[in-house]
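Q: what does this look like with nicotinamide-adenine-dinucleotide bound?
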Amino acid sequence: MSGLSLFSHPDYDSHERVLHFFDANSGVQGVIAIHNTYRGPSLGGCRIWPYTTGAEALTDALRLSRGMTYKAALANLNLGGGKAVIMANAKTDKSEEFFKGIAQAVNDLCGKYITAEDVGTTVKDMVVMKKYTNHVVGLPENLDQDDGDPSPYTSYGIFQGILASVKHRFKTDQMTGLTVAVQGVGKVGYHLCHLLHAAGVKIIACDLDEQNVARVVNECQATRVDPEKIYGVEADILSPCALGGMINDDTIHQFKVAVIAGGANNQLALPRHGAALHARKILYAPDYAISAGGLIRVTYDGKDFQRQDVMDHVSQIYQTMLEVYNRAEEQGILPSQAADQVAEKRFGKI
Ligand code: NAD
């Protein structure tokens, strides 16, 4: 894509840098997008996904990096937003040379972009990357307390966001007896199911991977549902923990829940879908506001790492969410607009 068409791309939002790269040695190719570095270097995971076209990969990189800017600002971290998306199959294409190729592209950005684990990558992959670049975080620390996987912290933050949503919507601190439908029970969805189960919540779960569903059926007494049926299930809360764009023209009329609160990045296919949820009286927890737990975790890399410090920090998401909901109510705006306002003020947009 030429620079000119990048600037007219619908998801281009004054991104500071967009790097397309191809490593001839390993054949790895992808896009690294840096959205904004006003508060600090951009940070965001390295996603491996079998994108069928470069345009799809670019769109994801632009949208996800922008989301990271908002997420870091709302969590009050001195970081900006970036993302690496790699056009490959995470099950078959990974090798040391492959990660060396990605690391070299990261190095080309001279520290303006810091990478981490994401969909399709693992902490082990980040340990391999660390051999070739210093610009990587989310590594194992104090192994008795933490194996470097940010997902449990992300799930804990989402759980806090669900608690705040329940408080705001149902005026209660009680979770027992509520039903939560979880779309995607991979790393984040799995840990979330355990927290919900421990709180006495009934869980309905789906995943494209049947083994993942079986895990939460066995361990958390979840009820399985087919992936295409998740949008229409009767539940109190829907928690999207798979991929983005699941709130769209096809799904919006199917929802039978009072709250949507989950960790998948970019859940609204378009901003107008936030207004459509509001019109249907569905409370929407802006995804970047409640999924910051993993990002908070990776800022704690280092030998003084204490798990409890991170958990205390992540639990502040509860308060942030209540503030977002109250601000939205006071000003008669959407929660997503209220969260955007707070974030944009912090990263210098307004
Ligand atoms: P993951 O790959 O471990 O899990 C995602 C799961 O969703 C997989 O099991 C996959 O089979 C399933 N899935 C994909 N499409 C689906 C569909 N249409 N219906 C049902 N299931 C489907 O990834 P993860 O780390 O758990 O991340 C989940 C989401 O949360 C992603 O959007 C990610 O960007 C976001 N997120 C993750 C973290 C983290 O710490 N891992 C942090 C912030 C945000």
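Residues 54-74 form the longest helix (21 residues). The first strand starts at residue 17 and ends at 22.
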